[in-house]
Amino acid sequence: MTLRCFSAAAQTNTVRSAILIVPLSTLGVLLHSATALASTSDPAVQELIRLVKVQSQQIHELQSRLAKVEKHTTHATATTQNTVKPPSVARTQPVPHTLKSGPVEPVKFAGDTPSPQFAMNSAAYPLLPAAPGSYAAVSNMPSGSAPVMGVASQIPSSSHSTTIGGLVLKWGKGLPQITTPDNAYSFRPRGRILVDYGSAFGSRFPQQNVSRTVMRAARLGFEGNVHQLSWVLEGDYADNKLSVMSAFMTWSDKMGGHLVEYSLGNKFNERGFDGSTGSDQTVFLDRDIVANAILPVKGWYGIGGAFKIFGDNWHVAAQITGNDVNTANLTNNVRDDLTYMLRSHYIPWRNKQGLVHLGAWGFYEDVKPSSSFSQNVRLLARTDDAFSLQFGPVMPIANSMAGGLEAFGIWRSAWALSEFGVRHIQMRDTAAGLPANTPFHGAAGTEEAFSAQAGIFLTGETPNYFAHTGQWATPRILHPMTDGGWGGWEVAARWDWIDATHIPTGGRAWTATVGVNWYLLSFARLMLNYTHADVTNKTGNYKGANSGNIVGLRSAVTF
C-alpha cells in the first residue's frame, strides 16, 4: 500500500514538473536578454534580472530532486516485482473462523439439478413441513426419517453454523451436522434419551400397584447422505436389552414432478398417525391404543423395502417387510412373518390459520407357524406392564388383515386427532406339536380400537405436525429457555377404547389420560401424564373386571 501511494505521488510530481519545465525556454530568453542588458543602470531592469536568476535556480533544484525521486521509484518497483509471488501461489494468513447465527439456510434437495430428469411440474420443493404459515412454523423432520426428504432437519430458533475448511458445521439440535456447502454430502449423529418414572395405584391386584423407573430409550446412531443416497444406523438400549433399530438406506429422486423415496433395510412401519410416529415425538408417554393394539405380529420394525411418493398436500407409502433384525429364529429354517403395508394421507383444506388431515392405512400379514398366539395391550404406561388387556394363548395365527382411518385438524395453536382401527385374525386349523382337537383351532375373530385426543399450546406454538408425511414431529418453540423465555407449554387429553371380545379369550378396556408437556427447547421436554384405565380380562393372571391409575413422568432429549 505504501509503494502504491508513493508511486502515485511520484506520478503527480512528474506532471507538476512538466508544467514547470514548459516555461524554461521563456526563462532562457529572459536570461539572454538580461545578460545583454546587464550593463544598463535601470533599477527595474536590475530587479528583473535578479528575479529571473532566483527562479532559474529554484527550477534547477526541483529538477534535481525530481530525478532522484524517479530513480528511487523505479528501483522499488523492480524490487517488488522480483520478490512478490503471483497471487495463485502467494501465502496468506489464515482467516479466523467465527461462529455465525442467523436465519435458516435455503433448503435444497440433495443432488438437485435443473436437468429435465428432475423437472418439477406441479410440486414445489422444498416443501414446508408445518402449518399454519401465519405462525412461521417449521417443524423438525421426524426422527425415523432419512436425512434427505426435500426439507430442512433444523430448528430455526436454535440454528447456528460456521464454515471450516470448505465444510459447513451446523448446530441445530445440540450436536453438529457436517455438510458440504451444496448439501450434497452430510453426516451427523442422532439419538434420544427418554427416562420414565411411574407410580401406579388403585388396582385390586397389589402386583399392579408399582412405582419404578425405566429407561424408555437410550438410542444412539448416525445418519448421512451422498447426493440422493441417504442412510441411517442406530441402536437402542431399552427394557434392559440392546437392539438395532433403524438400519436402512434410501434413494431419493423425482418422478413426474414429485419427490419419491426407495428404501431398503430395517425400517419403522407407517401405520396410522400415532403408529407412524417415533417414541420421542408423541404427545403422551405412549402411543394411542389404535397403534398399540392393531399391530402385526412382526412388531414395529421389519427388514424389507419401502416406497414413498410425496405431493403438495399428500403422500403414499408402501412397504413389504419380514421380521426385524432382532428377531430370534429359534427353529431352524423357519420363514419370516411377511407383511404388506400401505398408508396414505391427504390435506383437503389448508390456510394460514389451520388445516385438515385425512388418512387411511392397512396391512395384510402371512404369519409363520408358531406354538401359540397371545397379545398384551398396555393400558397405563411402560413402568407398569402388568396392567394390560390380555388375550391368548390360543391357536397360532395363520394370517390377519387390518385397516384404519385417521382425521387430524389444526386451528391456530390447538389440535385434535381421532383414529379408528380394526383387525381380523384367522387362526390355524392345525399346528406342529398340537393335537387336532386343540381349542379354538380354525377360529377367527376381530378386534376394534378407537382413540380421540386434543390439545393446545398455551404459549402460542404451532402444533407439532409434519405435513410432509402426516405425523407428529418436533415443534418449533417460540421462546426457548436458552433465550430467556418460558419455553413451550402444551396441555392435552385423550380417550382410548378397545373391544377384543370377538377374539377367543379376548376382553375389552378403555382409558382416559390428561397430560402437560413443558418444552425447554424444541428438542428437550418434561412430560407429566395421569391415566385412569378400566379393563375386563378373560385370561391371564388378572382375570375379571379391574381398574387402575398411574402418574407418569418423563425427561426427554432428542438430538
How is the topology of this model organized?
Elements: H1 2-21, H2 24-36, H3 43-83, E1 100-101, E2 160-164, E3 167-171, E4 176-179, E5 185-201, E6 211-226, E7 229-238, E8 241-255, E9 258-268, H4 289-293, E10 301-310, E11 314-321, E12 338-350, E13 354-366, E14 373-378, E15 388-394, E16 397-411, E17 414-427, E18 444-457, E19 465-466, E20 471-472, E21 488-499, E22 508-521, E23 524-537, E24 544-558
Antiparallel strand pairs: 1-2, 2-3, 3-4, 4-5, 5-6, 5-24, 6-7, 7-8, 8-9, 9-10, 10-11, 11-12, 12-13, 13-16, 14-15, 16-17, 17-18, 18-21, 19-20, 21-22, 22-23, 23-24
Helix pairs in contact: 1-3, 2-3
Tell me what you see in this structure.
It comes from Acetobacter cibinongensis. This is Phosphate-selective porin O and P. Helix 2 packs antiparallel against helix 3 (43-83). The protein has one domain: Porin, CATH 2.40.160.10. With 559 residues, the chain is mainly beta. It starts with a helix and ends with a strand. It is 14% helix and 44% strand.
Question: How are strands sequenced across the largest beta sheet?
Answer: 5-6-7-8-9-10-11-12-13-16-17-18-21-22-23-24
Gap between N and C termini, in Å? 50 Å
Please tally the β strands and state the result.
Answer: 24
Structural class: mainly beta
* CATH top level label: Mainly Beta
Identify the overall geometry. Answer: elongated
InterPro entries: Porin_dom_sf, Porin_O/P
Protein name: Phosphate-selective porin O and P
Pfam families: Porin_O_P
Keywords: Coiled coil, Signal
